[in-house]
Amino acid sequence: MTPGDGRTGSAVGRPLRRIDARGKVTGETLFADDLSLPGMLHLKLVRASLPHARILGVETAAARGMEGVRAILTGADFLVPFGILPVSQDEHALCVGKVRFVGDPVAAVVADDELSAEEAAALVEVRYEPLATIASPEEALSTPEPRIHDYGDGGNVHKAVALDFGDVPAALAGADRVFEDLFFYQGNTHLAMEQHATLAYVDPDGLLTIASSTQTPHYLHRAAARVLGLPPARIRVLAPPQGGGFGGKTDPFNHEIVAARAALLTGRPVKIALTREEVFLCHRGRHPVLMRMRTGIDRSGRILGHSVETLLDGGAYGSYGVASTFYTGALETVTYRMDRYRFRGCRTFTNKPPCGPKRGHGTPQPRFGLEVQIDKICEQIGRDPAEWRIENATQPDTLTANWLEIRTTGLVRCLEAVVAASGWRERRGKLGRGRGLGIASSAYMCGAGLPIYFNDMPHSGVQLLLDRGGGVTAFCGSTEVGQGSDNVLALLVAEVLGLLPSDVKVVTGDTSLAPVDLGSYSSRVTLMMGNAAVDAASRARERLAAAAATRLEIPAERVGFGGGKLFDVSDPSRSIVFAQAVQLAEAAGGTVGTTGSYRPPTPKARFKGGGVGPSPAYSYSAAVVEVAVDEATGVVRVVKVWIAHDIGRALNPVAVRGQVEGSVYMGLGEVLMEEQAFCRLPPRLSSALVHRGPSMLDYKSPTSLDMPAVETILVENPEPNGPFGAKEVGQGPLLPIPPAVANAVHDAVGVRVDESPVTPEKVLAALRDPSRRFGPTTFPEVPWPEPVRVAPPWEGKP
Amino acid sequence: MMRLPRFRYLAPRTLPELTAVLADVGPDAALLAGGTDLLPSMKRRQETPAALVGLRTVPELRARSGDAIAGLTLGATTRLCELAGDGAVTGAWPALARAASLVGSPPLRNVGTLGGNLCLDTRCTYWNQTHAWRKSIGFCLKKDGDTCWVAPGSTRCWAVSSSDTAPVLCALGAEVTLASRTGERRIPVPDLFADDGIRHLTKARGEVLAAIHLPSPRPDERSVYLKLRRREAIDFPVLGVAARVRLGSGGVVEAARIFLGGVGSRPQEATAAAAFLLGRRLTDEETVTEAARLAAQVAKPLQNTDFALGWRKGAAREYVGRALRELARPR
């Protein structure tokens, strides 16, 4: 469908109230932890107190004897492994044989109430044989034994990949200037307000229901069926509305599967609500990444060759890690023209909570490096970094060096917008000592081109039911995590049928009642679910138009939709109301129900490793940040952020702005203070390796008082692959913020902090160091595999 | 979610009833005022008192008497949010109003009390953690363990006094009344604190902090409180600078007291810096620099709060200087 096709103007582009706003504001929305059933039992997990150890025995007798205890489970109850990626089935719902980080679940206690479960859990004794502990990627590389897992690319390397798109060493040898920089991006976590909760119960007819705070009910469905040994048709997964996900609820989790098993075992509903500390331990957040970047340019500043090496601290399990590793290289090529590109990525296992996808999945880290390096290059060659970006921006309808297909791009318009709004040209360099402006841009995908497990089915399906009262219900397996996907579903159906979003009921996050949508990850929902919704609604529209045409005695092409009516576009006074149209259609052709589905186009990349990066569309962002730096203390205060986002088309501009501002907030937290950091005690005294502060007090994320003014500019440039031209907004706008802050700090006080977070300590250290820099100084030897060699599109075929 | 451990709740209705209850239940009881610190500590099983003795039903602890001229007595359960809105306090003791307004967040200040903030337990990154977390490090000296992880080998606990109001009340020369079944005693605020992370209060188990007495300020007196922390809300101070000076003719310092919070197990008095200021002017930058240097020497931060240790040392000097400059500013 081309943009504009089938539009009625009733919903798209209008700043209408979200359909779920009332429930959220009044507190009536039921989140997973609000669910409660008669006879419900409570589940607590016994978690490992050692970072790496063999389990010698689990003594449960004392706990079993406590009043109110109904069941105790251990690893012996969960011998089938699972994991989100088919290549990393490395988790057990409760540990089997060994524990791999402090917090790994070892046993589970089910009791009449939560306090009794907690007290009984404290009585479970686990006997361990401690193993050597690995705290960092460097240690993982230098300590192949003991292995944390017995699979992967050798020793404690989980995955090492190498891709060459053209001969980069030759390009660098022929370059006018070559720049080499090391960067480090610290790990951080999602910090969704809602802590994970799960309620599992068995219906009288034997159907196991798992209601859980999950962004990916379909993948949880598959994992639960596999581990529990049940046919998928015997399991129903519900994903109630969530208080934020950001990637932290996209894995199937051990507590979800344990709750399900406990419900099957006891025949009673079983509930678990994680504590904030447990959420920090589930993690799956941003990987800490060490990076080495080499970039060669010609006299004009054009990039002839770009080389990226990344070293990821994966934590104790695979999670999405193989994809994360590829993502630290995949989108490096999408913003600026580069003739040749070389990528090396290595993810290591360490004895810490597993890392995974967080907003921007694997790309904010290299984006930080690339955007800061470009700032340095521009400084060295005397170019305005905004002008350089505008001049070197990738163009529409082109392929990148790594065969990604760019269709629409609003990057140049985004850059021009923030340059104008911030007064970049007039104000830069004139703000006085301690004040500075920094710029950065970025790109993100609108859904992965390939599903997580190989299959030829749609990525998203929507079913519509139109009832005789004129009601419209849209069914989709998509998951409302707070981002507004329910509203997107309602508004797109409403747009096609000439209704208001509030006229459309939605049934989502239910694997029994709704067709599969792969989940709220990868910024895929608006585009993929949206296209499926438009598909389904267009079919319904055809049936209604035919019925109305018969009644109005006009050709179907002359039937217009709007204001809850179907009318003759040549004479709008001749109309029937929507409900009557449904009745006529039902009389003419039976129940009015339609389906729609979406599968993304086949990626152009046809090489091993080419599955990560392709997307039906790419969104673009650009930001200018103004900072004030206190040179006596190194404290950085962000004064203002100007951000422009290429949204394709804003389906609801208020909702889009909300996502942009949320992304800015999260980006500022990452670059200024957030750290998923760990504490290792003196090895001669203790083997402890613990999260430094798993609470919202000790994990520093900005408060509302720390948030600067944000000026958001939406750039509209309809994308043919998006529903009515829409692209993503959930993740992309985070990406330019961290490097723009680092670049602004340099503009303000002339120092480079080449790692996140840019803390007062680091700024002050850089101010006092002759190098005027703070950041990593070495990149360890990594056993890179033989590279996959693929010529860039302009040098040959893939 | 995190559940409170099991406990008994006692709600005495008068001060004599309260002190009798305290004498009765003794060391197994904890006093509950706003609960903003105690209840999270109980959820983390740092504290597992057999009984909680509620203070909100005791009217004597809410009594307020006096004024800015005669001096003000505030009941210990005066809520922190009330201080910021109390005309007498904001007028005569603005540093106290400011300190109170910087504690936690509005919901915490709406229930947190002045007495509770004064008696706030000392804090440490190895201590303010859940039972499971502390078990995974083998616990620590403060409770259930025998090693101080901040300073292994140390025989004392180095947990940090993290009250915003304590250094201010010290600098203001305030006093507190402690009540017990055997009577009352009134002591200067600095004497309430001991230099020990475990037994950080000199208050006996059977005593309750009943009232805070603010002495009337002289017209030529000025006070200030600066708080250093990573975020503009929520965070405890990693440094609090409380200073009071009396300025004579020509701005010459005639009296000074400076206390630093967040850098020791109790508020640390910078006596050498205060003595140095006598007879000098705060408008003189060299005086301020030297006083700040001297004051920062009493700050002995360890690696058990937010921010890196070395940076905190430098920041102490910088912030004392800023506090003194603020005192010098004409008003």
Describe the structure.
Chain A has 3 domains: 151 residues, Aldehyde Oxidoreductase, domain 4, CATH 3.30.365; 181 residues, Aldehyde Oxidoreductase, domain 3 (Alpha-Beta Complex), CATH 3.90.1170; 376 residues, Aldehyde oxidase/xanthine dehydrogenase, molybdopterin binding domain (Aldehyde Oxidoreductase, domain 4), CATH 3.30.365. In chain A, 26% of the residues lie in helices and 25% in strands. Chain A has 19 helices and 33 strands. In chain A, α6 crosses α7, α10 runs parallel beside α18 and α11 runs antiparallel to α12. The longest helix of chain A has 28 residues. The model of chain A has no long low-confidence stretch (mean pLDDT 97). Chain B has a 5-stranded antiparallel beta sheet with strand order 4-5-8-6-7. A 4-stranded antiparallel beta sheet of chain B has the order 9-10-11-12, sandwiched between helices. Chain B has a 3-stranded parallel beta sheet with strand order 1-3-2, covered by helices on one side. The longest helix of chain B has 20 residues. Chain B has 331 residues and is an alpha+beta fold. The mean pLDDT of chain B is 96. Chain B is built from 12 helices and 12 strands. The chains are: A alpha+beta (798), B alpha+beta (331). Chains A and B meet through α3 and α19 of A and α8 and α12 of B.
Mean pLDDT of chain B: 96
Distance between the termini of chain A: 29 Å
Count of individual beta strands of chain B: 12
Level of helix content of chain B?
A: 25-40%
Fold-level CATH name of the largest domain in chain A = Aldehyde Oxidoreductase, domain 4
Describe, in short, the structure shown.
The complex is a heterodimer of chains A (798) and B (331). Chain A is of the alpha+beta class and 798 residues long.
What's the helix and strand layout?
The complex is a heterodimer of chains A (798) and B (331).
Chain A: H1 21-26, E1 41-47, E2 53-59, H2 61-64, E3 69-74, E4 98-99, E5 105-111, H3 114-121, E6 125-130, H4 137-142, E7 157-165, H5 168-173, E8 177-185, E9 197-202, E10 208-212, H6 217-228, E11 235-238, H7 254-266, E12 270-273, H8 276-282, E13 289-297, E14 303-313, H9 321-330, E15 338-348, H10 364-381, H11 385-392, E16 398-399, E17 405-406, H12 411-422, H13 424-427, E18 435-445, E19 460-466, E20 472-476, H14 485-497, E21 504-508, H15 525-552, E22 559-562, E23 565-568, E24 571-577, H16 578-589, E25 592-598, E26 618-629, E27 636-648, H17 653-672, E28 678-680, E29 689-691, E30 709-716, H18 737-749, E31 752-753, H19 760-768, E32 773-774, E33 788-789
Parallel strand pairs in A: 1-12, 7-33, 10-11, 14-15, 20-21, 27-30, 31-32
Antiparallel strand pairs in A: 1-5, 2-4, 2-6, 3-5, 7-15, 8-13, 9-10, 9-12, 13-14, 16-17, 18-26, 19-20, 19-25, 22-23, 23-24, 26-27, 28-29
Helix pairs in contact in A: 6-7, 10-18, 11-12, 14-15, 15-16, 17-18
Chain B: E1 8-10, H1 15-25, E2 29-32, H2 38-43, E3 51-54, E4 64-67, E5 71-75, H3 80-84, H4 87-92, H5 94-101, H6 106-111, H7 114-118, H8 131-136, H9 165-171, E6 175-180, E7 183-188, E8 208-214, E9 221-228, E10 239-247, E11 253-261, E12 268-269, H10 271-277, H11 285-296, H12 309-328
Parallel strand pairs in B: 1-3, 2-3
Antiparallel strand pairs in B: 4-5, 5-8, 6-7, 6-8, 9-10, 10-11, 11-12
Helix pairs in contact in B: 10-11, 11-12
